[in-house]
């Protein structure tokens, strides 16, 4: 039975959609004869034209076929094609919305300056020449703004010619992995570290070597033993441990790269958000050795939704980029690039960062207080004081499976440092960015209730 309602959608679209769904879901099987147009029209009290239009759309898209003098039948081919698609699981693919989501790279809705952005966006629109292609590497004026911001705030040594605007970190890594393919076939990465790097470089057939993190960052001895010519690091704020590579080790790392004709990928993903100390200057800016590929993002301080990241390439690599990617345009839409350019140029970016530092410090302190109050001595805080998250380690015996089930039941989502959220490594991220200030305490309290219900029964 089809449900046809008086709604904004024309009746023939409603009928077409419902029949189509029945076909896709195998309720209407291959070769099934559809009711005649006359019968449909009298059963549902709709005009013959409505039924005709619905059938004709289904026919045009190949869901049904017409058998002369007999009528319409469900097409055999379409069923066979569709059963290979994960239609039945399509609900599982929709991201679940959690009541309390402790994701470490999220902002609450109120943080993004929507009104200002839409004002800048309309100004940006009027400045865009929609009749021509944009700059492949990313809008030149945006790159100029970015290069002066990076040199002022992160001590990065670069000019706009070295910057490529990318659509998120994985895109940045995709470009780098392609440029360096001819130069090396393996990459050393921090362990534990940000899994996306491993995923992208594995896809490009790089051999991955994990380098342990010591008290003061990456284990250089282990790196030297690998003979690798490429290393990925998060020197200012190691992900996920939060450790900082001290200056002496930074210089050792650069010397290693110079001596071995190697490259360092510096992921400076959240340094501008430091609130307990001034941001540590970038590794790239220590000297102009042309050995460091600098990677940054607007996700942490502005918005993860706009998908803007960037890379600063050594001069030699920028000419390789131009050769390899001569056919490719930055994936960031020009209106977003232009709005961002105005946001930086007109001084809003600097103000926004200052606002974010104050707000994040407040949220961080509220989260820390709530952890102490509700989780008491059952956890140890192993990373705090910057970014959008506090990392905790369990000091009690937790039944992780039970915890996972109970959290799902209560619609609470926390994340492990293994990134894929199997809660089995004893450490958990409690991200605070996604909550408003007054939600933090209640979110931690709800988590703590489930936490204590999940203590392992040792009897
Ligand atoms: C270590 C690390 N690098 C980079 C990023 C930035 O990712 P994107 O620019 O794709 O939002 C993140 C975001 O969470 C991160 O944790």
Automatic annotation (TrEMBL):
Stretches assigned to the HTH gntR-type domain: 9-77
* Molecular functions per Gene Ontology: DNA binding; DNA-binding transcription factor activity; pyridoxal phosphate binding; transaminase activity
Q: Keyword annotations for this protein?
A: Aminotransferase, DNA-binding, Pyridoxal phosphate, Transcription, Transcription regulation, Transferase
The answer to whether UniProt assigns keyword Disulfide bond to this entry is no
Q: Which Gene3D superfamilies match?
A: Type I PLP-dependent aspartate aminotransferase-like (Major domain) (3.40.640.10), Winged helix-like DNA-binding domain superfamily/Winged helix DNA-binding domain (1.10.10.10)
Q: Which residues form a coiled coil?
A: none
* CDD domains named among the record's database cross-references: AAT_like, WHTH_GntR
Question: Keyword DNA-binding on this protein?
Answer: yes
Pfam annotation, one family: Aminotran_1_2
Q: Which family does it belong to?
A: In the C-terminal section; belongs to the class-I pyridoxal-phosphate-dependent aminotransferase family.
List the PANTHER family.
HTH-TYPE TRANSCRIPTIONAL REGULATORY PROTEIN GABR
Name of the protein this chain belongs to:
GntR family transcriptional regulator
């Amino acid at each position: 039975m089809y449900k046809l309602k008086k709604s904004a959608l024309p009746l023939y679209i409603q009928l077409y959609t419902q029949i189509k769904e029945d076909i896709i879901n195998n309720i209407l099987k291959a070769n099934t004869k559809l009711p005649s147009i006359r019968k449909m029209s009298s059963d549902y009290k709709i005009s013959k034209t409505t039924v005709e239009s619905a059938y004709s759309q289904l026919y045009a898209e190949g869901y049904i076929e017409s058998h002369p003098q007999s009528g319409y039948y469900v097409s055999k081919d379409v069923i066979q094609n569709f059963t290979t698609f994960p239609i039945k699981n399509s609900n599982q693919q929709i991201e679940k919305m959690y009541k309390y989501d402790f994701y470490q790279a999220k902002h609450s809705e109120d943080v993004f300056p929507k009104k200002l952005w839409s004002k800048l966006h309309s100004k940006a629109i009027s400045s865009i020449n929609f009749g021509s292609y944009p700059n492949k590497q990313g809008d030149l004026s945006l790159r100029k703004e970015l290069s002066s911001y990076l040199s002022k705030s992160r001590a990065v040594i670069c000019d706009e010619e070295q910057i490529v605007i990318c659509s998120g970190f994985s895109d940045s890594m995709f470009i780098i992995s392609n440029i360096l393919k001819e130069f090396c076939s393996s990459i050393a990465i921090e362990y534990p570290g940000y899994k996306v790097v491993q995923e992208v470089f594995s896809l490009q057939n790089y051999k991955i070597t994990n380098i342990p993190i010591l008290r003061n960052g990456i284990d250089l001895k282990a790196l030297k033993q690998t003979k690798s010519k490429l290393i990925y690091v998060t020197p200012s704020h190691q992900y996920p441990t939060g450790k900082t590579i001290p200056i002496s080790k930074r210089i050792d790392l650069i010397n290693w790269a110079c001596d071995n004709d190697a490259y360092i990928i510096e992921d400076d993903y959240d340094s501008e958000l430091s609130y307990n100390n001034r941001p540590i200057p970038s590794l790239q800016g220590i000297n102009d050795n042309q050995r460091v590929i600098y990677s940054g993002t607007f996700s942490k301080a502005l918005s993860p939704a706009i998908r803007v990241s960037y890379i600063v390439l050594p001069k030699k690599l920028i000419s390789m980029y131009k050769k390899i990617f001569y056919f490719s345009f930055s994936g960031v839409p020009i209106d977003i690039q232009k709005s961002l350019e105005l946001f930086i140029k007109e001084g809003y970016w600097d103000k926004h960062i200052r606002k974010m530092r104050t707000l994040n410090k407040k949220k961080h302190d509220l989260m820390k207080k709530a952890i102490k109050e509700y989780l008491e001595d059952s956890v140890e805080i192993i990373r705090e004081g910057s970014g959008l998250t506090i990392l905790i380690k369990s000091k009690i015996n937790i039944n992780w499976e039970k915890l996972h089930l109970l959290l799902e039941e209560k619609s609470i989502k926390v994340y492990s440092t293994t990134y894929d959220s199997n809660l089995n490594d004893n450490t958990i991220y409690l991200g605070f960015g996604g909550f408003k200030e007054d939600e933090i305490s209640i979110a931690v309290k709800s988590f703590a209730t489930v936490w204590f219900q999940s203590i392992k029964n040792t009897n």
